[in-house]
Amino acid sequence: MAAAYTETHEPANIVVSSSVSSSSPCLAVSLTQDDLKKIAAYKAVEYVESGMVLGLGTGSTAKHAVDRIGQLLRQGKLKDIVGIPTSTITHQQALSLGIPLSDLDSHPVVDLAIDGADEVDPSMNLVKGRGGSLLREKMVESASKRFIVIVDESKLVNYVGGSRLAMPVEVIPFCWNHSLNRLVALFSDAGCVGKLRISSETGKPYVTDNRNYIIDLYFEKDIGDLNEASDAILRLPGIVEHGMFISLATSLIVAGVDGINVKTKVGNEMETSLMEVELRTFSVPIRSDPLLCRSSYPCTIFSYCRCR
Fold first, then answer.
1. Do residues 8 and 154 make contact, with C-beta atoms less than 8 angstroms apart?
2. Active-site position among 119, 137, 141, 153
3. Least enclosed by CB within 10 Å: which of 108, 137, 153, 248?
């Protein structure tokens, strides 16, 4: 099953081999990480209905969902959508696509939010904010009736921080080094290291949409109870917000080589389903010559071919 938890971060292209003979016109399907992100995003948009207030996420995976919403609006398949963007980048993207926008002041309750994640643990707790938008993302997604998280399978971890990549914390610029030292001290038992995020473009501290800085925390071990960790971080003066999204996600869509795994919270239980995806929807090349294929069914990301 695709949703086995892993700590792989940059998977190579995934090749799905065909089980048909060499005379078949169908070729193996090579899926990149971005293909998987697009598949998860398109699946999430299937839950969008006309008239909804939508939280529009930020990042490389959420970008595909926003693109798809814009496409469906242009086609007339969605109507009367209102989007609430979680960053200036998403705001600009949505405007370019003609998606009507608003904010939480005008729409304090959001019907559905769709966003990616940097890590997802087995309980659907998340790490978000490596793209720098964690505060606005958390504001919008905590106000949502439903929050669908979309990822490829490389984002699944055994515990929050398990990728050993950054868990961001947004802080005010004043005495940021003091804040960094106090954050590291909180998690010394987990082998915590903290670094001020530096912009690759300017060589200066990265500045969020809210004019704050980000301290990235790296853990060697599990930090334990997430609610206790959250409370300890937020009690420190100068801390604005952290990138742990605890018990906010209501559904998780994971795209992998075996198909799409959908995990949904129902009360205190988790329901999981695995479904096929038609690659034709995602513009992934699947045949050497479409004219040679007489099948009325497109190939899927499963390891077999439906060509007759």
1. yes
2. 137
3. 108
